[in-house]
Structure formats: structure tokens, C-alpha cells
């Protein structure tokens, strides 16, 4: 295989959708995943595919990275530890994976003269924004270790681009959702929580009054942005990737057709609104999202069985799971 794309975290939610797209585009794909967050079932539709190579390994292992990056033209770096609460409780795991792991990816990419590195960053770096829609040059105000370590990874990527002339781009994703969204981990991503509750005929747990808005971005749009960025000649830049149309949690509940709801306390360190300013990515790449929230929710409901085995959260379970969240972030 002469032209290979490496996708770290390729068995995860967004990573597996990216693998789908790259294979459909005729690319050869190598996946590196330690299966802590990712799951092989996300790639089972490609089992035996002659252009797909799946390697079990960790980005904290330099020897593994050196081996899998060899021969690759492009590296899509999605592997990371996610979730807010675990990052507060065990920050060492997040630092070693999201910071040291990213360093290892960059060193391997530099050593093997990779043509482009695409880094998936997080809009959580903005913390509680002061400007809406939020542009890429807004102040960086991470509220918890996950957000901080993802931003530190981005800074490494951009620094390697400047110092070593490694072609790099960073894409800050806003509230990505879609089929295969994570069902594991401590209470967090709203779609997985709500869909599991719907399946179990339990009340949907609305944080606060539900009027907070989120820039929900469908996964196919996020993948399209990555592919467009990879094909571009740009380097050393950061791009926001969102829908550009924030939707309230209450509106999401309405679209899901839920009849039963219950409210849980608003969490410290969370913004009332996330809203991507995408002027930069439109100007540079002529990219814009195409999936409206109504269409995206219908797709999620069509795939609702995926969440059949997901944890079903109750207000009591949420209170226990988020106790450290309130303990450490509720001091302001």
C-alpha cells in the first residue's frame, strides 16, 4: 500500500466514521487504538477489508507509534482520553495520553516525514466564552483537566508545525453527535444519556432549566471538515468545526419525543451556550455543515438500538458520578 492514512483512535466514535469515509474515498487506512474508549464493533462493517489494517496499541508507546506511522502519508490524530469527571479524578491518565501521547505522535510523524498531521482539538478550551459566536482567537479558559490537556496537545501540534515545518492543522470540534457516540465513561454526553433513558422508558435528566444551548455538530459534518482540511494546502492553523446553529437542550428533548423528564442541578464550569464562529474555515476551505439538527436526531433515533446496553442514568446515579465535579469546580 503506497498511500496510507493513519487514524489514531480509529475504533472510537468519530474515528470510526472517519475510517468509513477514507475507505469509501479509496484510501488505505491503518487504525491505532487501545480499545479503552474505542470498540471493535465500530469497525465490524469493514472486517476483512483489504485496505484496512487495525493495530491494537497505545499512543503512549513510542515503539508502537514508530511502527504504525512508518509508510503513512497523513496522520489523523483522534486518540484521547475524554470525559470531564475522570479527568478531575485521575489527571495523570489524561496528561500522559492527551499530552505525552500527542508528543509521541508528532515525533513519529516528524521522523517519518508525514505529509500532514490533522489534530482533533476540543471547543472546551474556550471554557465559558465571552463572545458568541466564538472565534478561534477568543481567550482560552479551560475549566477542567480534559479541556486543558486537549489544548496542550494542540499547542504541541502547532509548535511542531512552526519549529520543524511539519504540516499540521488543528480542528476544534463543537458537541459532535451521531451513531456510535460513546456509551461508556462517566455521565456526560447528552445524546447517549438521553437515548439510553428513552430505551429504558426512564425520564430524561435535564441539567438545570434546559435553556442552555449547544452547537450540536453531526458526525458526518465533522468528518467532512477533517477530509477537507487534509486535502488543503494550509498548515499551522486552527479551525472551529460546528453547526453554527445552537439548539437548546429543551428543544433536543422535544425533537426526541420524550414524554418524561426530570431536572438535575446545573454543573459548575459549563457554559450556557456553545456556538462556533466558522468564518475562518469557510473562508479557507469553503467548508460548511450540511446536517440540520432535525435530520441528525432522526438518524440517531433510527440507530437507537446501539444504546440498548448503555448505562441508564438516574438523578441519584448522576449525583454520585458528578460529586467530584461539584467538589472541585464548584468553589467559584
Count of domain modules:
2
Provide the structure class. alpha/beta
- The CATH topology of the largest domain: Rossmann fold
Strand content: 15-25%
Mean pLDDT: 95
> Roughly what percent helix?
25-40%
Count of individual beta strands: 13
Q: Tell me the radius of gyration.
A: 19 Å
Query: Major β-sheet, in short?
Result: 7 strands, parallel
Instruction: Say which CATH homologous superfamily of the largest domain is assigned.
Output: NAD(P)-binding Rossmann-like Domain
* Number of continuous helical runs: 12
CATH C-level category of the largest domain = Alpha Beta
Report how far the terminal alpha carbons are from each other.
54 Å
Task: Categorize the overall geometry.
Answer: globular
Give me the CATH architecture of the largest domain, please.
3-Layer(aba) Sandwich
Low-confidence stretches: none
Order of helices and strands: EHEEHEHHEHEEHEEEHEEHEHHHH
Structural features, described:
It is a single chain. 39% of the residues lie in helices and 17% in strands. It is of the alpha/beta class and 332 residues long. It has two domains: 4-176 and 217-241, NAD(P)-binding Rossmann-like Domain (Rossmann fold), CATH 3.40.50; 181-215 and 244-274 and 291-322, Alpha-Beta Complex (UDP-galactose 4-epimerase, domain 1). It has a seven-stranded parallel beta sheet, sandwiched between helices. A two-stranded parallel sheet has the order 7-10. Helix 5 links the parallel strand 5 (116-122) and strand 6. The longest helix has 21 residues, at 91-111. The model has no long low-confidence stretch (mean pLDDT 95).
Amino acid at each position: 500500500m503506497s498511500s496510507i492514512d493513519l487514524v489514531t483512535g480509529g475504533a472510537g466514535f468519530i474515528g470510526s466514521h472517519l475510517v468509513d469515509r477514507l475507505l469509501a474515498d479509496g484510501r488505505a487506512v491503518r487504525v491505532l487504538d487501545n480499545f479503552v474508549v474505542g470498540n471493535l464493533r465500530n469497525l465490524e462493517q469493514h472486517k476483512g477489508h483489504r485496505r484496512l489494517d487495525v493495530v491494537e496499541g497505545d499512543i503512549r508507546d513510542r515503539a508502537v507509534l514508530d511502527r504504525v506511522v512508518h509508510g503513512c502519508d497523513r496522520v489523523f490524530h483522534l486518540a484521547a482520553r475524554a470525559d470531564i469527571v475522570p479527568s478531575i479524578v485521575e489527571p495523570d491518565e489524561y496528561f500522559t495520553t492527551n499530552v505525552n501521547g500527542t508528543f509521541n505522535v508528532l515525533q513519529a510523524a516528524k521522523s517519518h516525514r508525514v505529509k500532514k498531521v490533522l489534530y482533533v482539538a476540543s471547543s472546551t478550551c474556550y471554557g465559558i466564552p465571552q463572545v458568541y459566536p466564538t472565534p478561534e482567537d477568543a481567550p482560552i479558559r479551560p475549566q477542567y483537566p480534559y479541556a486543558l490537556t486537549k489544548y496542550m496537545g494542540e499547542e504541541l501540534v502547532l509548535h511542531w508545525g512552526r519549529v520543524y515545518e511539519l504540516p499540521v492543522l488543528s480542528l476544534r470540534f463543537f458537541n459532535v453527535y451521531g451513531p456510535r457516540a460513546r456509551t461508556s465513561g462517566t455521565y456526560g454526553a447528552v445524546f447517549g444519556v438521553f437515548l439510553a433513558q428513552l430505551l429504558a422508558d426512564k425520564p430524561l435528566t435535564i441539567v438545570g432549566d434546559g435553556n442552555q444551548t449547544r452547537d450540536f455538530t453531526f458526525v458526518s459534518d465533522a468528518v467532512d471538515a477533517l477530509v477537507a482540511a487534509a486535502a488543503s494546502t494550509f498548515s499551522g492553523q486552527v479551525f472551529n468545526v460546528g453547526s453554527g446553529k445552537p439548539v437548546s437542550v429543551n428543544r433536543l428533548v422535544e425533537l426526541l419525543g420524550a414524554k418524561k423528564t426530570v431536572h438535575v442541578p446545573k454543573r459548575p464550569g459549563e457554559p450556557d451556550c456553545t456556538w462556533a464562529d466558522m468564518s475562518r474555515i469557510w473562508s479557507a476551505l469553503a467548508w460548511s455543515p450540511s446536517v440540520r439538527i432535525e435530520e441528525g436526531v432522526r438518524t440517531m433515533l433510527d440507530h437507537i438500538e446501539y444504546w440498548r446496553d448503555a448505562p441508564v442514568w438516574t438523578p441519584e446515579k448522576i449525583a454520585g458520578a458528578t460529586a467530584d465535579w461539584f467538589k472541585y469546580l464548584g468553589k467559584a
